[in-house]
Design a protein that fits this description.
alpha/beta; about 475 residues; eight-stranded parallel beta barrel
Length: about 475
């Protein structure tokens, strides 16, 4: 149901949400969590009127705060991990690439069963583009899912791989950095209080020594970290992540880790001696984003360097006070591997592609809709079909873009389809939370994370609509 006017919105709110002088009062929680929140989130995405779309986002954000749901930074927990006060678990950063509302609902249901508070919802810079989910859209969707599932407390939303494009940087460094700064500003304005900046794409292995190899990585990383600190809402320290090795390239080393962190910290302190640095460090251990598809469309086995992961995570904590190392590209690993990450005190693990695979490959996913998507992808992205690539490999690599190209189609899938896929995803999250040992982490999150409500601005929500 899409509203035709703001008056229609107001009429639907009667007896459920009250409005007075820019504040929202929750009058009937059960009715809100019934159909109304579903209607509001649909309008926050698809309404053609910027005023109604922005108003819907504003209402979701205000209502979330009214219910004690607060977009937050995980910085406090990560600092405590860096001090050795907590450990033995790995925080899952769960990618919201497709069917975002239904997926987030499944995540919250699993988290409540596991009493899990240490988890992150994330989306990467590239995914924001091809799934058509800008920051100001995705934050209300996550918060609406929290409302629907009666969540309370902090919600950690993260911008992942806010990445420098090396080719664009070589042509015009200022333009590339300014574009990334604009995305950072949008993210923070929307409620991204966890941001992974990725300048590892600027590492130059042709340089004579490791410091020079990492120079642009730490220099641009410091520049972007300072920019983030300038934009922080009062009372919030955004959790910033750094990266020393591009995922899918050669494995990281201790020398690279120390060269990056020593020089990053020294440069950051040049102007402000007490400036807050990064909270975690992403490294490369042998994985690649999405895995490597074989000609039949299956994924090749990965040899993951657990020794490097354990060693660099330990150095990051003990020598630099970080929460530890971050593992990317892990969602398609064999299930028996996941218990290794908390055993090795990996700080955070990023999971994405397997959730996408589960959606497309679900027996409940309509075959005709899938074929419609695949047919479109074969035509629109034909230039991405490399020599020697089979159709199965092409579809595996490209179908992530279907989430944006068919955004409305995914949203309008039959309710029973979305319910069944949501249940399948929920079982996967149950498994992951158990293997990553993040059950019963609500209390430690409550002890280390300060809730800082940031009230939304209606005019800003409307102006941010696309």
């Amino acid at each position: 149901m899409l509203f035709a006017s703001k008056e229609e919105v107001t009429d639907q709110l009667k007896g459920i949400l009250g409005q007075n002088n820019g504040t929202v009062t929750l009058e009937n929680t059960e009715k809100l969590r019934g159909d109304l929140i579903d209607i509001l989130v649909e309008n926050s995405i698809f309404n053609e009127s910027k005023e109604i779309k922005g108003f819907s986002r504003y209402l979701i954000k205000q209502t979330a705060l009214e219910m004690g749901i607060v977009s937050s930074s995980i910085q406090g927990l990560y600092e405590a991990m860096g001090r050795g006060e907590y450990g033995g678990f790995t925080v899952p950063a769960l990618n919201t690439r497709g069917m975002t509302y239904d997926m987030c609902r499944a995540i919250f249901r699993s988290a409540h069963k596991a009493n899990c508070g240490a988890l992150i919802f994330e989306i990467a810079k590239s995914e924001i583009g091809y799934t058509f989910q800008p920051p100001h859209e995705i934050v209300p969707v996550v918060l609406a899912a929290a409302i629907k599932e009666n969540h309370k407390g902090p919600v950690f939303i993260q911008g992942d791989h806010f990445q420098v494009n090396p080719k664009n940087f070589a042509l015009d460094p200022d333009k590339e950095i300014n574009g990334l700064k604009d995305l950072i500003r949008q993210g923070i304005d929307a409620g991204f209080y966890n941001i992974d900046i990725d300048t590892s794409t600027l590492v130059d292995l042709s340089q004579p020594n490791v410091k020079e190899e990492q120079r642009l990585n730490f220099e641009v990383g410091v520049k972007l970290t300072r920019y983030i600190r300038q934009l922080e809402p009062e009372g919030i320290t955004i959790s910033v992540g750094g990266e020393i090795g591009e995922v899918g390239k050669q494995n990281s080393t201790e020398e690279e880790l120390r060269a990056y962190l020593d020089n990053f910290n020294a440069k950051l302190a040049e102007k402000e001696g007490n400036a807050k640095g990064i909270s975690k460090i992403s490294i490369q251990t042998g994985t690649s984003h999405g895995g490597v598809p074989l000609p039949d469309g299956t994924v090749a086995e990965v040899t993951l360097d657990f020794d490097t992961l354990e060693k660099l995570s330990q150095i990051a904590r003990e020598s630099y006070g970080l929460s530890g190392a971050v593992q990317h590209g892990a969602s398609t690993l064999p299930q028996e591997m996941f218990n290794k990450f908390p055993e090795l005190k990996t700080s955070e693990i990023h999971l994405a592609t397997n959730f996408q695979n589960m959606i497309y490959d679900s027996k409940h996913f309509p075959a005709d809709f899938k074929e419609k998507i695949y047919k479109h992808l074969r035509v629109k992205f034909a230039d991405e079909m490399n020599d020697g690539m089979t159709d199965e490999q092409f579809i595996y690599k490209t179908r992530k873009k279907g989430f944006g190209e068919f955004k409305a189609g995914f949203w309008s899938l039959p309710k029973e389809v979305k319910t069944e896929i949501g249940r399948e995803l929920e079982k996967e999250f149950d498994f992951l939370f158990q293997k990553l040992n993040v059950q019963n982490t609500v209390e430690m999150v409550e002890k280390t994370v300060t809730l800082v409500p940031v009230k939304p601005n209606l005019e800003n929500e409307i102006s941010a609509c696309q």
